[in-house]
Amino acid sequence: MTLLSVKRTRTLGPPSRALRYLPVSALVLDFLLMTGVFFLAIVGRRRLGVFDSPSDVTSTLQIVGPLVLLSWLVVIAAFGGYHDDVFGAGTDEYKRVFNASIVTAGLLGVGCYLAKFQLSRGFFLLAFGLGVPALLLGRWVLRQAVHRARRQGKLQYRVLIAGTPEHVDEIAAVLSRESWLGYHVSGALVPVADLQEETASGIPIIGACEQATSVITASDADLVFFAGGALTSAGQLRRIVWDLEQAHVQVVVAPSVTDVSGERIKVRPVGGLPLMHIDPPRSTDAARWGKRLFDLFGSSFLILAFSPLMAYAALRVKLADGGSVFFRQTRTGRDGKQFGCLKFRTMVVDAEEQLAALHAQMGHEGGLFKMQDDPRVTKPGKWLRRYSLDELPQLFNVWRGEMSLVGPRPPLPREVASYESDVLRRLRVRPGMTGLWQVSGRSDLSWAEAVRLDLYYVDNWSMLQDISILGRTVGAVFGSRGAY
C-alpha cells in the first residue's frame, strides 16, 4: 500500500507558489496605503489647520513620518498581521491589524509625552483616524481578491483528509462547498479495514491512517485534516505532529461538528486537553423583542421609502390583464401558525390550476417548486421577479408581526406536512423576506442546501448577521442571482 500511496501522491501537482507571496502582498499594500494616508495627514494638517500651532512642524514630520510608518508596520508584524494562516477567512486578520494600530497610536502618544517631543496633534489625529479604516478596507479588498482567485482554482492548498470514508466525505463536502477557502482535497487516508480505491464521493484513497506520517510526507501536502476515526489515541496525534515538524505541513483536527458559528464555540484547555464548548442554539434570541423592534421600525421605513415603486408595480400588474394586484397565499409562520403571505401577482389568474400538470411534466416530487421560463409568469411578473419586487408587499406582513425582515423562507403548509423532525426547527423563528437562502443563490440552490442554510440561521442567529444579510441582499437582488 505504501508504493501505491507514493505513486498516487505524485498527482497532487505543484504547490501554489502565489501563496507564499500573500504576506508580502499584504505588506506592500499596507505600506502604500500608509504612505498615502501620511501624505494626506501632512497636507490636511497644513490646509485644514487642525490643532494649528505657531511653530512650523512640517520639517519635523518629514523625518518623524517615515519612522512612525515603519514602526506601525513592525507592530502589525509583531501582532501576527502577516502570518500565512490569517489570510482569507475569519476576523482574526482584522483584529490583529486593528489592535496593532491602537497599540502603535498609544505607544507613539506616550513616547512623545515622555520625551517632550512636539508631534503635531493634527497629524496624529488624521494619520490614525484615516489610517486605521484604510488598512482594514485594504485587507478587505485583498481578501475579496483572494476569494475570487480561489473560486477560479488559484491560490489552492493541497489537502489530505484522514478518517473513516464517511467522515472524509463529510469534511470534503464542506470544503468543496466553501471554495473560497482554497482547500483542494487531493486524497484521503483511511483505516486499514476501509482501504479501497476511493471513497463514495470519489476522493482517492492514497494510504492508511496507520501509515499517516510516511504517506503525508511523501505526498507533499500543505494541510492534513484529521477527522473522526483517523486516530486511536491522543498520543498518536502528538507523535504525528512531532514527525511532521520539519515537513512544514499544517495539522488540523476536524471534530464532528458542522454548521456552528464561531461565536458559539469556545476552546478551553484543561490539563493539556483542549475542550470545545458549544453554546446552546440561539433560536430563542431570534424571537425576542430586540429583533421585533428592528423589524417594526425597519418595515415602517421601507414601506414609506418604496411606496412610489409599489404604486407603479401595482399599476403595471393591473393593466396587464385586469386581474387582482395582490396574490395572497397561505404560508406557515413561527410555531406552525398559518398566515396570508402577500405578494404582487406575477402569474396568470389560473396559475394554481396549472401547477399539477407542471409537477408531472418536470417530475417534481417534493420541496419548493421553481422552474426557469415558467409559462404561467406574466410580462410584468418577469420584471417583478427578476428584482424581487413582487415580495415588497410582505413588508406589511413584517409590520404585522407575521414575518421578519430576515429569516427562513416562509413554507407552504403542504411542505411543512412532509418535513422531517430536523427540518421543523425552521419554524422556531418568524419567516423572513430575505435570508441566507436568498443571498446564497435563491432558486439555484437545491432543497437540501436551502434547508441547511435555514437551520444554520436559526441556530446561529445574531443581529450583526441580520444586518450583514440585508446588505448582501442588495447585491443579490441587483445581480438577479437565482431569480426566476
From TrEMBL:
GO molecular function terms listed in the Swiss-Prot or TrEMBL record: transferase activity
Topology term for the membrane: Multi-pass membrane protein
Pfam families the UniProt entry points to: Bac_transf, CoA_binding_3
Main location: membrane
Transmembrane segments: 21-43, 63-82, 94-116, 122-142, 293-315
This protein's record includes keyword Nucleotide-binding: no
Domain of life assignment: Bacteria
Keyword set, alphabetical order: Membrane, Transferase, Transmembrane, Transmembrane helix
InterPro entries (alphabetical): Bact_transf, EPS_sugar_tfrase
Compartment list: Membrane
Residue ranges annotated for the Bacterial sugar transferase domain, each copy included: 291-478
Family: Belongs to the bacterial sugar transferase family.
Protein name: Sugar transferase
Species of provenance: Nocardioides conyzicola
